[in-house]
Amino acid sequence: MKSLARRKFLQTLATGGAALGLANTGWASALNKQTLTAAADNRFKISLNAYSFNGPLTKGTTDLEAVMDFSAKTGFDAIDLTGYYFPGYPEVPTDEYIYRLKQKAHTLGLGISGTGIRNEFAEPNEARREAEILFVKKWIDAAAKLGAPVIRVFSGKTIPANHTWEQTEAWIVDAFQQCAAYGKQKGVIVAVQNHNDFIKTAAQTLDILKKVNSEWFGLVLDTGSFVTEEPYSEMAKAAPYAVNWQIKEKLNYQGRSEDMDLQKLAQIIHASPYRGYLPIETLSPGDPFEIVPPFLKKVKAYIG
């Protein structure tokens, strides 16, 4: 029975492009070519992005260590220990605190899938951009000590007044190149998250990734933030560059709001070259201690 189920699963993946209704597109063709190999090498591990607990963490009604306990008990393989929730952020925490979390994760059997910070590279003032680059480098050091393989960063909020997208992109690319070079020295991959901010489309994302041109720079593919065009096609175009993910419950685009189609998403992820942590991030209002477990169950059913 297991063998039969597996054959059916592989057949489903092999026809993934047609199932998405995009069999004639270039990316669907590429998806089909990679599918069988990808499906035979399923090494995905489901992680919890700490932002799912943004409310309680911000209010101080819980802390990262409690969220780690929850993650282990609920069945996560790993956790993204987002920097915003470290004591004293945006300052880098003490080594003592970093190592305490690292030790706790090991004791709980949790991997650390990454960390993340808020930065702003769409900044016309060169001195301020340099300060932002230094800020990212300090947190790259923290990520290295923590054992996080990836640090999540942003491009910028928007195009500054009296400047063009191309001018702003040049500043951002230069900043990313400096950060990636430093990440290489410390063994930490620097990854930009598409966040419907300065970066809105897959084409813009890929343009930046190709211009940075570093194996130590990649994409945190935010499944909920390609909102200006058909989102699944956008995800598929960007998926070959993903070094980490953000799997969300909802899609909100072009005036529509709908549940994430986890079957479509699974086909895209399995067809990509990425193998590793798949962090989920729940944003629904309410108690994350109640919201997260059923979504984890759904994600595991389709992807894990």
Beta-strand fraction estimate: 15-25%
State the strand order across the main sheet. Answer: 1-2-3-4-5-6-7-10
The helix fraction, in percent, is 40-55%
Distance between the termini: 19 Å
Order of helices and strands: HHHEHHEHEHEHEHEHEEEHEH
Question: What characterizes the major β-sheet?
Answer: 8 strands, parallel, barrel
Taken from the alpha-carbon principal axes, the silhouette is: globular
> Average pLDDT across residues?
90
Structural class: alpha/beta
Unreliable stretches (pLDDT < 50, length at least 5) are 1-40
Helix tally? 12
Radius of gyration from CA coordinates = 19 Å
Structural notes for this entry:
The chain contains 12 helices and 10 strands. Strand 8 and strand 9 form a beta hairpin. With 304 residues, the chain is α/β, with parallel strands linked by helices. The model is unreliable at 1-40 (pLDDT under 50). The radius of gyration is 19 Å and the shape is globular. Helix content is 49%, strand content 16%.
